Fold this sequence. Notes:
The protein has a domain at 61-112. It is built from two helices and nine strands; from the N terminus they run E-E-E-E-H-H-E-E-E-E-E. It has helices at 72-75, 79-106; strands at residues 2-9, 12-19, 45-48, 54-57, 116-118, 123-125, 132-134, 140-145, 150-155. A four-stranded antiparallel β-sheet has the order 6-3-8-9, with no helix packed on it. Strands 5-4-7 form a three-stranded antiparallel β-sheet, with no helix packed on it. Strands 1-2 form a two-stranded antiparallel ribbon. The chain starts with a strand and ends in a 6-residue tail after the last strand.
Amino acid sequence: EFKYLITLQQDLLSSELVVTNMGSSNLQLMGSILSHLEVSSPNATYAVGLQGSSYFNKPPPMSEFLIVPPNFNEKFRSNAKKSQFLEGILSGWSSREQKSTDEAKSGGELSEEGVEREEGEDYAQLTEKMSRIYTTAPTKFTVIDRGRRTSVVFGRRGFEE
C-alpha cells in the first residue's frame, strides 16, 4: 500500500510517502525528487551543503507535449490566432533538439552525461542553468538566492539509502 501526502503551510511544503508492505516478500524501493526552482539570476544563486555529493549531468527530457490553459479557447477565438500561437511555441523544439545533438557531438556538457562527478565545494555558485541527478545527496542542503534575498532548504527524513 502506498500513500502520498502533501502538506502546504505558510513557509513549508512537505511531501511524505508512506509504504506498507502487505505481502510476505521483501520490497526494494528507490526514490528520487524532481524539483524546479526559479531564481533571480544564476550569478546570485548558491547551493550550500552539497560537498562530497556524487552527481551526473542530465539534460531535461525532450517532450512534444504541450500544456494548454483551460481558457485557451476564450483567449484565442479565431483559428488563425491559435495556429500562430502554437506555431510560435513549437518552433523552438526542433532547434533545441538540433542544438542538443550538436553539443553532444562537439563534446559539450551533454556528452558528459554518463560521467559521475563529485561536488568539491560546500558553497557553490550556480553560474548557469543546470540539470543534475545526485546519487548521494545529503539529508539537507540550502539554495540561497541573493537577488531575491531568499533561501530554500531541501531535506529528507526516514529514507535512508
